[in-house]
Amino acid sequence: MRTGATDAHAPGGGHCAPAPRPEPATAPGDPAAARVGIVIATRDRRAELATTLRRLAAAQPDAPVTVVDNASTDGTPDLVAAEFPRVRLVRLSENRGCAARNAGVAHTPTPYVAFCDDDSWWPAGSLARAADAFDAHPRLGLVAAATFVGDGRRPDPINDLLARGLGAAPPGLPGPRVLGFLACAAVVRREAFLAAGGFSELLFFTHEEALLAQDLAALGWEACYLPDVRAHHHPSQNRPPSAWRRRLELRNRVLVHWLRRPAGRALRETARLAGAAAAAPEARGALADVARDLPRTLRDRRRLPARVERDLRVLER
């Protein structure tokens, strides 16, 4: 299952410093009647973001939208303020990567929060169906949506993986249990998201979904795939360099193991990365990143409950 596939927040560096406090947000419209708010993290994609905001205004006119700008340099926040006055705008003074979404949730008071990237959106009816599932299932913490790509709305291959999940939907849940999702196609119960600590400041980009799914499960919250909740993704051409992305993927796979998995498994992942480092420059860089970040990682380490570890091993087999 894909563990980190969104990158609207990615450019601007491979490591996240301690998070600054967000600057005051602009005033939004009244969200009092809404069950689901929408949070978008963005950086230097003003054209794609404008298209997404127009699509959301047409498809989800009652949902309050919060845009978190990850220190863009292309005038993105000024565009939002000038052309989308009903959108709440949170300006960050530095690029916080995936953790920018946490600032958006902090400014979104609705009981449920849907995430978008600046190149994805939610069609009419999807968020209402997600909210109905949350209302009916009080231990449901996250809904993983079906993702459809491009103007042709091709099913993303991850849909099949999510549909298999951990087996058929058990009694009392609306869909198959999952331990992964795409952030640009997920809706969370705000209470559960905050209890789990949100997206990782340490990881910055990629694998943040896997870690959050594990932390939700550790707290007893369920995550389910609901195919009738749909998200549309139009992948941006403005993407970070592939070598930079690959280096972070390799780093974060190892760090997530050290954060939550048994030491033996974490050691094996580290050894696998070290073995690849001789031939691959991205692996050498990732190994150096792991060495730099391992002390902080170990301070944040907490083992998953046995039931969650068992579920992960089922998926890995």
UniProtKB/TrEMBL annotation:
Residue intervals of the Glycosyltransferase 2-like domain: 38-193
Keywords: Glycosyltransferase, Transferase
The keyword Transferase is annotated on this UniProt entry: yes
Highest taxon of source: Bacteria
Keyword Ubl conjugation belongs to the record: no
Molecular function (Gene Ontology), one example: glycosyltransferase activity
Disordered: region residues: 1-30
PANTHER family: GLYCOSYLTRANSFERASE (PTHR43685), GLYCOSYLTRANSFERASE EPSE-RELATED (PTHR43685:SF5)
Family of this protein: Belongs to the glycosyltransferase 2 family.
Name of the protein this chain belongs to: GT2 family glycosyltransferase
Organism for this UniProt entry: Streptomonospora nanhaiensis
Lineage: Bacteria, Bacillati, Actinomycetota, Actinomycetes, Streptosporangiales
